[in-house]
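HUMAN: Ready with one sample?

ASSISTANT:
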Amino acid sequence: MSWKDTYRLTWNDFKAKPKYNVNAVATTASGITFGFSIRESDTRVISFSTEVHAHFYPDQSWYKPESVNDHVLGHEQLHFDITELFARKFRKRISLLKTTNDVAKRLRETHKNINKELAAFQDKYDAETDFSRNMEVQLQWEVFIKKELKILDYFKSTD
């Protein structure tokens, strides 16, 4: 499922079986998919195009029905919103790349780096909010991510 600013996750979107052998009460599986094509003339790259998407993976996302509420769902939604934020950051970085013969290598490096940054940021979010249990910090994160998404609105997902 692609990120849309008009859609909010519901518990019905979480299709995987709950994992009762872990402390978590829910898990959002999301990530950035990326593809590119390059046009060449003789041995010279003359242009490139890319596609970047923020996705939610229902079949890998789960929750424990007896342990969740709307607050937890909001925490999970923000994980998906953070994925969109990093998709926007990725699109912005791509927009700054020049068309050169090594653009494919630079695109792959940028993708690798953005995924590392995204993973670290998701971990920081969970740590600082204590997995949504710190209500005050959770609210601060919600305000922060909303502001960051607005700053990069030009690069938002359109599909």
